[in-house]
Amino acid sequence: MADENDLQRQKEHGDASLLPATNMQETPDKGVSRREFVGLAAASILFGQINRPALASESKNGIPYRTLGRSREKVSVIGLGGYHLGKQADQQESIRIIRTGLDEGLNFLDNCWDYNGGESEVRMGKALRDGYRQKAFLMSKIDGRTKTAAASQINESLKRLQTDRIDLMQFHEVIRETDPERIFAGGGAMEAALEAQKAGKIRYIGFTGHKSPDIHLKMLATASQHKFTFDAVQMPLNVMDAHFESFEKKVLPVLLQNDIGVLGMKPMGDHVILESKTATPVECLHYAMNLPTSVVITGCDSLPILQQALQAARSFQPMSASDVSTLLAKTAKAAEAGTFELYKTSHHFDGTFANPQWLG
Questions:
Q1: Does an H or E element contain 213, and which?
Q2: Can you give the pTM of this predicted structure?
Q3: Alpha-carbon distance 248 to 98, whole Å?
Q4: For the chain, does the N or the C end have fewer beta carbons within 10 angstroms?
Q5: Do 66 and 55 touch, CB atoms closer than 8 A?
Q6: Of all residues in the chain, what percent are helix, strand and coil, respectively (each to 5)?
Q7: Which pLDDT does position 346 carry in this prediction?
Q8: What angle do CA 352, 229, 53 make, to 5 degrees?
Q9: Neighbours of 185 (CB within 10 A)
């Protein structure tokens, strides 16, 4: 188990338990079960709708900004995905994409220790020179499940990104039933994250996953058992997720109830959703922005794709219930079996499945 003194420090960020106060009084020494979390998610849907945060409280150069949960950090509604930056053939073009995004009002940057063998972080580190680091809310992820592996990856990310502080560090690919227990176990990755936070290397802690909303709920329940509350959670939120193994329906209400920052990813399913011909790129982005997301992270491997994302953010207006229903009706049939959400139904997107050594 992670050091109790370090876990106690998390209370300064908010309530360390995801249980309602009455339940905490009745069962002070018990964590919330996975079944209770599923029930809480269902019961919280109405809560989430009634208490939706303002979709935009301010903007920068026409890009709406939202609040990242109880951290109260202000982040751009659109976030620049790190994976595609490393796939771009020209390193200098990747740097131009990052700097153009920051100059035009975007501030949220996504990355990961394993993206393209570290090349995505290397390129982002070069882009953040010359004063650009001050413009960015910088997020990266680690795969390590042990304290040793996680600590090594955190330090390597800091070196590649050429910074002494990463704003949000997340446990990457929480896609296995065993991941929550491994991360929170004695000698697990959470201990490394808390020590890095104490040392000022990272500011906030979150986790990501794309496989199953039930595994997300298990991760949240395990955190609650250890009296820890995540600052942010990343998950697929798109026009097809609503129909199949839905993070929107199961996990989103729990995050809203507990003021945890919501990071939406795969708004186009890494372009696969577009192949269904049921929604346009802008419709996909607007749907994800219409949810109570703090950030919608999208991959941009060229300046035109970046400009498309920026324009989608600038042109976004809250969608009516009728507009949402119409869009979901168009995608319902294609979404039934997860055919266009390969990250849920295959190992195509599972880097740690192909490289289990990254877990430690």
A1: helix 213-225
A2: 0.85
A3: 29
A4: N
A5: yes
A6: 50, 15, 35
A7: 82
A8: 100
A9: 19
Q: What amino acid occupies position 270?
A: D
| Nearest C-alpha neighbor of 264 from the set 40, 71, 88, 75 | 75
Neighbours of 333 (CB within 10 A): 10
Question: In which order are the strands placed within the sheet that holds 73-76?
Answer: 58-60, 63-68, 73-76
Q: Are 199 and 165 in contact (CB under 8 A)?
A: no
CB proximity list for 200: less than 8 A, separation 6 or greater:
164, 165
Neighbours of 329 (CB within 10 A): 10
Q: CA 47, CA 72: separation in Å to the nearest integer?
A: 20
- Between the alpha carbon of residue 333 and those of residues 89, 273, 346, the distances in Å are 36, 12, 19
**DSSP-derived 3-state class of residue 204:** strand
Beta-carbon count within 10 A of 287 CB: 26
d(CA 229, CA 239): 28
- Give one DSSP letter per residue of 82-102, joined into a string: SHHHHHSS-HHHHHHHHHHHH
Q: CB under 8 Å to 212, separation ≥6 — which residues?
A: 175, 245, 344
Helices (H), 291-336: 303-315, 321-335
Taking only the tens place, the pLDDT of each residue in 106-136 is: 999 999 999 999 999 999 999 999 999 999 9
Cα 167 to Cα 39, 110, 203, 204: the distances in Å are 32, 11, 5, 6
Give pLDDT < 50 ranges for the chain: 1-54
Q: Spell out the residues 6+ positions from residue 284 whose beta carbon is closer than 8 angstroms to its own.
A: 238, 239, 267, 268, 273, 274
CA 353 to chain centre: 19
Q: Which residues pair with 63 in a beta bridge?
A: 60
